[in-house]
Amino acid sequence: MHFCTKFLIVITAFCSYSMELKQPIVSYILNKINNSEEGTNSRADPLSKNVEGLEKLLSETEALNQTEKIYTVEHLVKSNGYPIETHYVTTGDGYILRVHRIPSSPKMNASNGKVAFLQHGILCSAADWVITGSEKGLGFLLADAGYDVWMGNARGNTWSRNHTTLNPDKDAKFWKFSFHEIGLYDIPAMIDYALEKTGASSVYYVGHSQGTTAYYVMLSELPAYNSKIKMAANLAPIAFLNHMSPLFQIMSLFEPMGNFLANLIGINEFMPTSNFFKYLIGNKICAEDSVTEYLCTNALFAFCGFDYAQLNKTLLLFIIKYTPAGGSTRQFFHYGQAIHSDKTNILSDLD
Q1: In terms of C-beta density within 10 A (0-12 exposed, 13-18 middle, 19 or more buried), how is residue 105 classed?
Q2: Whole-number CA gyration radius for the chain
Q3: d(Cα 30, Cα 41) in Å, to the nearest integer?
Q4: Which of 256, 245, 330, 322 is nearest to 74 (CA)?
Q5: Strand 115-119, strand 203-208: pairing
Q6: Is 161 exposed, middle or buried (0-12, 13-18, 19+ CB in 10 A)?
Q7: Which of 15, 174, 320, 342 could anchor a disulfide with 166, C-beta 3.0 to 4.6 Å?
Q8: How many domains does the chain contain in total?
Q9: In which domain, by residue range, is 83 found?
Q10: What is the CATH number of the domain that holds 205?
Q11: Residue 102, SS3 per DSSP
Q12: Mean pLDDT, consecutive 10-residue segments, the chain of 351 residues?
Protein backbone atom coordinates (compact mmCIF):
# COMPACT_ATOMS: atom_id res chain seq x y z
CA MET A 1 0.00 0.00 0.00
CA HIS A 2 1.30 3.46 -0.93
CA PHE A 3 2.81 5.52 1.91
CA CYS A 4 0.38 8.41 1.43
CA THR A 5 -2.54 6.02 1.64
CA LYS A 6 -1.18 4.68 4.92
CA PHE A 7 -0.76 8.24 6.17
CA LEU A 8 -4.39 9.07 5.35
CA ILE A 9 -5.53 5.88 7.10
CA VAL A 10 -3.64 6.92 10.24
CA ILE A 11 -5.29 10.35 10.10
CA THR A 12 -8.67 8.67 9.63
CA ALA A 13 -8.06 6.44 12.62
CA PHE A 14 -7.13 9.41 14.75
CA CYS A 15 -10.21 11.36 13.64
CA SER A 16 -12.48 8.40 14.20
CA TYR A 17 -11.18 8.01 17.73
CA SER A 18 -11.23 11.70 18.59
CA MET A 19 -14.81 12.11 17.37
CA GLU A 20 -15.85 8.88 19.10
CA LEU A 21 -17.44 7.48 15.96
CA LYS A 22 -19.21 4.22 16.62
CA GLN A 23 -18.48 2.76 13.19
CA PRO A 24 -14.94 1.27 12.92
CA ILE A 25 -14.17 3.26 9.78
CA VAL A 26 -10.56 2.21 9.41
CA SER A 27 -11.37 -1.50 9.61
CA TYR A 28 -14.19 -1.00 7.16
CA ILE A 29 -11.90 0.73 4.65
CA LEU A 30 -9.11 -1.82 4.98
CA ASN A 31 -11.56 -4.67 4.51
CA LYS A 32 -12.92 -2.99 1.40
CA ILE A 33 -9.43 -2.54 -0.01
CA ASN A 34 -8.52 -6.14 0.77
CA ASN A 35 -11.71 -7.37 -0.86
CA SER A 36 -10.88 -5.29 -3.93
CA GLU A 37 -7.42 -6.86 -4.10
CA GLU A 38 -9.00 -10.32 -4.03
CA GLY A 39 -11.23 -9.40 -6.93
CA THR A 40 -14.47 -9.51 -4.93
CA ASN A 41 -15.25 -5.89 -5.78
CA SER A 42 -15.69 -5.05 -9.46
CA ARG A 43 -15.13 -1.34 -8.69
CA ALA A 44 -11.62 -1.87 -7.35
CA ASP A 45 -9.70 1.36 -6.81
CA PRO A 46 -6.36 1.74 -8.72
CA LEU A 47 -4.53 1.99 -5.40
CA SER A 48 -5.57 -1.58 -4.57
CA LYS A 49 -3.98 -2.97 -7.73
CA ASN A 50 -0.38 -3.94 -8.40
CA VAL A 51 2.65 -1.70 -8.55
CA GLU A 52 2.53 -1.53 -12.36
CA GLY A 53 -0.98 -0.16 -12.22
CA LEU A 54 0.03 2.50 -9.71
CA GLU A 55 3.07 3.50 -11.76
CA LYS A 56 0.85 3.82 -14.84
CA LEU A 57 -1.54 6.06 -12.93
CA LEU A 58 1.29 8.25 -11.70
CA SER A 59 2.71 8.58 -15.21
CA GLU A 60 -0.74 9.62 -16.43
CA THR A 61 -0.86 12.40 -13.87
CA GLU A 62 2.47 13.72 -15.11
CA ALA A 63 1.00 13.95 -18.60
CA LEU A 64 -1.71 16.22 -17.24
CA ASN A 65 0.69 19.14 -16.85
CA GLN A 66 -0.77 20.60 -20.02
CA THR A 67 -4.11 21.08 -18.23
CA GLU A 68 -2.57 22.98 -15.31
CA LYS A 69 -3.68 26.31 -16.72
CA ILE A 70 -7.31 25.46 -15.97
CA TYR A 71 -6.60 25.05 -12.25
CA THR A 72 -5.92 28.70 -11.51
CA VAL A 73 -7.84 31.38 -9.68
CA GLU A 74 -8.03 33.29 -12.94
CA HIS A 75 -9.79 30.38 -14.62
CA LEU A 76 -12.19 29.95 -11.70
CA VAL A 77 -13.30 33.56 -11.95
CA LYS A 78 -13.42 33.81 -15.75
CA SER A 79 -15.35 30.56 -16.09
CA ASN A 80 -18.07 32.10 -13.95
CA GLY A 81 -18.32 35.10 -16.25
CA TYR A 82 -16.55 37.66 -14.03
CA PRO A 83 -13.57 39.86 -14.89
CA ILE A 84 -10.32 39.29 -13.02
CA GLU A 85 -7.00 41.07 -12.69
CA THR A 86 -3.72 39.63 -11.44
CA HIS A 87 -1.40 41.90 -9.46
CA TYR A 88 2.01 41.33 -7.86
CA VAL A 89 3.01 42.92 -4.56
CA THR A 90 6.53 42.89 -3.14
CA THR A 91 6.78 42.94 0.65
CA GLY A 92 9.35 44.82 2.69
CA ASP A 93 11.35 41.61 3.15
CA GLY A 94 11.32 40.65 -0.52
CA TYR A 95 8.45 38.17 -0.93
CA ILE A 96 6.49 38.54 -4.17
CA LEU A 97 2.78 37.96 -3.58
CA ARG A 98 0.11 37.38 -6.19
CA VAL A 99 -3.13 39.25 -5.52
CA HIS A 100 -6.34 38.59 -7.43
CA ARG A 101 -8.90 41.31 -8.08
CA ILE A 102 -12.53 41.08 -9.17
CA PRO A 103 -13.15 44.73 -10.06
CA SER A 104 -16.81 44.39 -11.00
CA SER A 105 -19.72 42.04 -11.53
CA PRO A 106 -21.72 41.32 -14.68
CA LYS A 107 -24.78 41.60 -12.45
CA MET A 108 -23.98 45.18 -11.35
CA ASN A 109 -23.98 48.32 -13.49
CA ALA A 110 -22.03 50.43 -10.99
CA SER A 111 -19.67 49.98 -8.07
CA ASN A 112 -20.57 51.09 -4.54
CA GLY A 113 -17.06 52.51 -4.15
CA LYS A 114 -16.14 50.06 -1.36
CA VAL A 115 -13.07 47.85 -1.35
CA ALA A 116 -13.18 44.34 0.14
CA PHE A 117 -9.98 42.50 1.00
CA LEU A 118 -10.17 38.73 1.60
CA GLN A 119 -7.41 36.69 3.25
CA HIS A 120 -7.40 32.88 3.25
CA GLY A 121 -6.49 30.38 5.97
CA ILE A 122 -3.55 28.04 6.47
CA LEU A 123 -2.60 25.78 3.52
CA CYS A 124 -5.17 27.62 1.41
CA SER A 125 -5.27 30.34 -1.23
CA ALA A 126 -7.44 32.96 -2.88
CA ALA A 127 -9.22 30.11 -4.68
CA ASP A 128 -11.19 29.49 -1.47
CA TRP A 129 -13.31 32.58 -2.04
CA VAL A 130 -14.50 31.58 -5.52
CA ILE A 131 -14.30 27.79 -5.74
CA THR A 132 -17.96 27.29 -4.81
CA GLY A 133 -19.15 29.24 -7.84
CA SER A 134 -20.99 32.48 -8.46
CA GLU A 135 -24.03 31.57 -6.37
CA LYS A 136 -22.10 30.84 -3.16
CA GLY A 137 -18.51 32.09 -3.47
CA LEU A 138 -17.98 35.10 -1.21
CA GLY A 139 -15.74 36.80 -3.77
CA PHE A 140 -18.54 36.71 -6.33
CA LEU A 141 -21.26 37.69 -3.87
CA LEU A 142 -19.33 40.77 -2.74
CA ALA A 143 -18.72 41.76 -6.36
CA ASP A 144 -22.46 41.37 -6.99
CA ALA A 145 -23.07 43.73 -4.07
CA GLY A 146 -20.89 46.37 -5.72
CA TYR A 147 -17.58 45.82 -3.91
CA ASP A 148 -14.18 46.01 -5.56
CA VAL A 149 -12.88 42.61 -4.40
CA TRP A 150 -9.20 41.91 -3.68
CA MET A 151 -8.09 38.40 -2.67
CA GLY A 152 -4.67 37.98 -1.11
CA ASN A 153 -2.24 35.05 -1.19
CA ALA A 154 0.14 34.59 1.72
CA ARG A 155 3.83 33.95 1.13
CA GLY A 156 4.76 30.38 0.30
CA ASN A 157 1.44 29.21 -1.11
CA THR A 158 0.89 28.10 -4.71
CA TRP A 159 0.53 31.63 -6.07
CA SER A 160 3.05 33.44 -3.85
CA ARG A 161 6.01 31.09 -4.01
CA ASN A 162 8.42 33.78 -5.15
CA HIS A 163 11.04 36.17 -3.79
CA THR A 164 13.33 38.88 -5.09
CA THR A 165 16.51 37.02 -4.07
CA LEU A 166 15.60 33.66 -2.48
CA ASN A 167 14.78 30.47 -4.38
CA PRO A 168 12.07 28.44 -2.57
CA ASP A 169 13.48 25.21 -4.01
CA LYS A 170 17.05 25.87 -2.85
CA ASP A 171 17.06 28.41 -0.01
CA ALA A 172 15.78 27.23 3.37
CA LYS A 173 15.68 30.86 4.46
CA PHE A 174 12.70 31.40 2.14
CA TRP A 175 10.59 29.21 4.45
CA LYS A 176 11.62 30.86 7.69
CA PHE A 177 8.27 32.47 8.41
CA SER A 178 4.98 31.86 10.18
CA PHE A 179 1.70 33.75 10.51
CA HIS A 180 3.64 36.44 12.38
CA GLU A 181 5.50 37.51 9.22
CA ILE A 182 2.31 37.20 7.17
CA GLY A 183 0.67 39.70 9.53
CA LEU A 184 3.73 41.93 9.79
CA TYR A 185 4.58 42.12 6.08
CA ASP A 186 2.14 40.42 3.70
CA ILE A 187 -1.26 41.74 4.71
CA PRO A 188 -0.11 45.36 5.22
CA ALA A 189 1.64 45.36 1.82
CA MET A 190 -1.39 43.94 0.01
CA ILE A 191 -3.82 46.32 1.72
CA ASP A 192 -1.61 49.31 0.92
CA TYR A 193 -1.41 48.20 -2.71
CA ALA A 194 -5.19 47.82 -2.99
CA LEU A 195 -5.76 51.24 -1.43
CA GLU A 196 -3.23 52.84 -3.77
CA LYS A 197 -4.79 51.29 -6.87
CA THR A 198 -8.38 52.11 -5.92
CA GLY A 199 -7.88 55.46 -4.21
CA ALA A 200 -9.91 54.28 -1.22
CA SER A 201 -8.91 55.17 2.33
CA SER A 202 -9.91 51.88 3.99
CA VAL A 203 -10.95 48.30 3.23
CA TYR A 204 -13.61 45.90 4.43
CA TYR A 205 -11.49 43.01 5.68
CA VAL A 206 -12.57 39.37 5.68
CA GLY A 207 -10.19 36.83 7.16
CA HIS A 208 -10.52 33.09 7.57
CA SER A 209 -8.63 31.02 10.15
CA GLN A 210 -4.93 31.97 9.84
CA GLY A 211 -6.14 35.04 7.95
CA THR A 212 -7.59 36.25 11.26
CA THR A 213 -4.49 35.44 13.32
CA ALA A 214 -2.27 37.36 10.90
CA TYR A 215 -4.80 40.22 10.99
CA TYR A 216 -4.52 40.40 14.79
CA VAL A 217 -0.72 40.43 14.48
CA MET A 218 -0.90 43.32 12.01
CA LEU A 219 -3.15 45.47 14.21
CA SER A 220 -1.10 44.67 17.30
CA GLU A 221 2.32 45.32 15.77
CA LEU A 222 1.25 48.06 13.34
CA PRO A 223 -1.57 49.97 15.09
CA ALA A 224 -1.68 52.59 12.32
CA TYR A 225 -3.49 50.00 10.21
CA ASN A 226 -6.54 50.18 12.46
CA SER A 227 -7.54 53.32 10.55
CA LYS A 228 -7.25 51.45 7.23
CA ILE A 229 -9.86 48.88 8.24
CA LYS A 230 -13.44 50.07 7.83
CA MET A 231 -14.85 46.82 9.16
CA ALA A 232 -13.54 43.30 9.73
CA ALA A 233 -15.36 39.97 9.52
CA ASN A 234 -13.39 37.17 11.18
CA LEU A 235 -14.40 33.68 10.05
CA ALA A 236 -13.26 30.77 12.27
CA PRO A 237 -11.02 33.24 14.15
CA ILE A 238 -7.90 32.00 15.92
CA ALA A 239 -6.98 34.16 18.89
CA PHE A 240 -7.41 31.68 21.73
CA LEU A 241 -6.36 28.10 21.16
CA ASN A 242 -8.58 26.15 23.55
CA HIS A 243 -10.66 24.72 20.71
CA MET A 244 -8.13 24.05 17.97
CA SER A 245 -8.66 21.01 15.72
CA PRO A 246 -7.60 17.59 17.08
CA LEU A 247 -4.53 17.38 14.87
CA PHE A 248 -3.20 20.74 16.07
CA GLN A 249 -3.72 19.66 19.67
CA ILE A 250 -1.67 16.51 19.10
CA MET A 251 1.03 18.39 17.18
CA SER A 252 1.43 20.85 20.05
CA LEU A 253 2.63 18.04 22.33
CA PHE A 254 5.60 17.41 20.04
CA GLU A 255 6.26 21.00 19.00
CA PRO A 256 9.63 21.56 20.73
CA MET A 257 11.21 18.39 19.30
CA GLY A 258 9.31 18.64 16.00
CA ASN A 259 10.58 22.14 15.28
CA PHE A 260 14.13 21.07 16.10
CA LEU A 261 13.96 17.98 13.86
CA ALA A 262 12.39 19.91 10.98
CA ASN A 263 15.25 22.41 11.07
CA LEU A 264 17.82 19.65 11.46
CA ILE A 265 16.76 17.58 8.45
CA GLY A 266 15.62 20.51 6.31
CA ILE A 267 11.84 20.05 6.14
CA ASN A 268 10.82 23.57 5.26
CA GLU A 269 7.84 23.42 2.88
CA PHE A 270 4.68 21.76 4.14
CA MET A 271 2.23 19.99 1.77
CA PRO A 272 2.84 21.92 -1.45
CA THR A 273 0.30 21.38 -4.19
CA SER A 274 1.24 18.61 -6.61
CA ASN A 275 -0.12 16.35 -9.33
CA PHE A 276 -0.23 13.56 -6.74
CA PHE A 277 -2.79 15.48 -4.68
CA LYS A 278 -4.64 16.93 -7.64
CA TYR A 279 -5.13 13.76 -9.64
CA LEU A 280 -4.28 10.61 -7.70
CA ILE A 281 -5.72 11.73 -4.36
CA GLY A 282 -8.37 13.95 -5.88
CA ASN A 283 -9.66 11.82 -8.72
CA LYS A 284 -9.23 8.38 -7.20
CA ILE A 285 -9.11 8.33 -3.41
CA CYS A 286 -11.53 11.22 -2.85
CA ALA A 287 -14.07 10.19 -5.47
CA GLU A 288 -17.62 10.52 -4.16
CA ASP A 289 -19.07 7.22 -2.89
CA SER A 290 -15.73 5.43 -3.33
CA VAL A 291 -14.63 3.09 -0.53
CA THR A 292 -11.73 5.43 0.26
CA GLU A 293 -13.80 8.63 0.43
CA TYR A 294 -13.71 8.39 4.25
CA LEU A 295 -9.94 8.84 4.10
CA CYS A 296 -10.33 12.28 2.52
CA THR A 297 -13.20 13.51 4.64
CA ASN A 298 -11.64 12.44 7.94
CA ALA A 299 -8.19 13.74 7.02
CA LEU A 300 -9.88 17.07 6.27
CA PHE A 301 -11.75 16.99 9.59
CA ALA A 302 -8.45 16.33 11.41
CA PHE A 303 -7.16 19.70 10.20
CA CYS A 304 -10.37 21.69 10.26
CA GLY A 305 -12.57 20.09 12.90
CA PHE A 306 -15.58 17.85 12.36
CA ASP A 307 -18.65 19.26 10.61
CA TYR A 308 -20.04 16.67 8.22
CA ALA A 309 -23.22 18.65 7.55
CA GLN A 310 -21.17 21.50 6.06
CA LEU A 311 -19.05 19.29 3.80
CA ASN A 312 -19.86 19.32 0.11
CA LYS A 313 -18.65 15.87 -0.92
CA THR A 314 -19.29 16.51 -4.60
CA LEU A 315 -17.11 19.61 -4.51
CA LEU A 316 -14.33 17.78 -2.66
CA LEU A 317 -12.85 16.45 -5.92
CA PHE A 318 -12.56 20.02 -7.17
CA ILE A 319 -11.21 21.43 -3.89
CA ILE A 320 -8.30 18.99 -4.00
CA LYS A 321 -7.17 20.66 -7.24
CA TYR A 322 -6.43 23.82 -5.23
CA THR A 323 -5.91 22.64 -1.66
CA PRO A 324 -3.52 22.11 0.03
CA ALA A 325 -1.83 25.16 -1.44
CA GLY A 326 1.29 24.70 0.70
CA GLY A 327 3.09 26.73 3.31
CA SER A 328 5.92 26.65 5.81
CA THR A 329 6.30 24.04 8.54
CA ARG A 330 6.93 26.94 10.90
CA GLN A 331 3.32 28.05 10.52
CA PHE A 332 2.20 24.83 12.19
CA PHE A 333 4.95 24.85 14.80
CA HIS A 334 4.01 28.42 15.74
CA TYR A 335 0.44 27.38 16.49
CA GLY A 336 1.78 24.34 18.32
CA GLN A 337 4.07 26.51 20.43
CA ALA A 338 1.17 28.78 21.37
CA ILE A 339 -0.98 25.82 22.41
CA HIS A 340 1.83 24.13 24.32
CA SER A 341 3.19 27.16 26.17
CA ASP A 342 0.35 29.59 26.77
CA LYS A 343 -3.11 29.62 25.20
CA THR A 344 -3.08 33.44 25.19
CA ASN A 345 0.37 33.66 23.62
CA ILE A 346 -0.81 33.69 20.01
CA LEU A 347 0.72 37.08 19.11
CA SER A 348 4.26 36.27 20.24
CA ASP A 349 6.87 35.41 17.62
CA LEU A 350 8.06 31.83 17.03
CA ASP A 351 11.12 30.83 19.05
Answers
A1: buried
A2: 21
A3: 13
A4: 322
A5: parallel
A6: buried
A7: 174
A8: 1
A9: 71-235
A10: 3.40.50.1820
A11: strand
A12: 43 40 39 46 42 48 51 91 97 97 92 94 91 92 96 94 95 91 96 97 95 95 97 89 64 57 57 57 60 64 67 73 80 74 54 54
